[in-house]
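Standup notes
- DV: blocked on the single-chain target, sequence here:
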Amino acid sequence: MKIKKGDKVQVITGTYKDTVGEVLACFPKEDRIIVEGVNVVKKHMKPTQENPDGGIVEKEAKIHVSNVMIYDEKAKKAGRVGYKFETDKKGNTEKVRVNKKTGAVIKGKK
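- DV (later): unblocked, structure below
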């Protein structure tokens, strides 16, 4: 899966089309992700010790990874993810993710 936790993505289909948000969680075995503010559902919660009142809670549900594209904030454009190899000053080669439309390197959280 080319989309990682912490990436900025834009939804390209469905009710939330053109919405930009951050990926909160990834589920590679299911090819699904949770995006901040997208696919918000109401869940009925039973009263528990942590939540004694219970009630109705709004939370984000999973969406398929094919419904989003990586988003470049500087260019304000969404694009597909590609890979390229970069060499640093010491001669070390590293494989990095790249936005194919803008050519910008996608920085991962380390």
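- Follow-up: The chain has a mean pLDDT of 92.
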